[in-house]
Amino acid sequence: MSNNLNFITFGCKLNAFETQVMKEKAEGYFLTNHSFINSCAVTNEAVKKVKKSY
After folding, report:
1. How deeply is 30 buried, as exposed, middle or buried, from its count of CB atoms within 10 A (0-12, 13-18, 19+)?
2. pTM for this one?
3. Of all helices (H) and strands (E), which one includes residue 31?
4. Which of 1, 13, 15, 26 is the most exposed place for a label (fewest CB within 10 A)?
5. Cα separation of 39 and 15, whole Å?
């Protein structure tokens, strides 16, 4: 059964690692049809990408 979880990462390698941790932890919960956005506001480039995405 697909839980349809979406994870979107903007930012550095640390953000990518944190997103992977969130994915692993989410497997233990009964979540369906959720989207998670993990972003970094340390760099202006990451902020621009997040704003452009919606």
Report:
1. exposed
2. 0.67
3. none
4. 1
5. 7
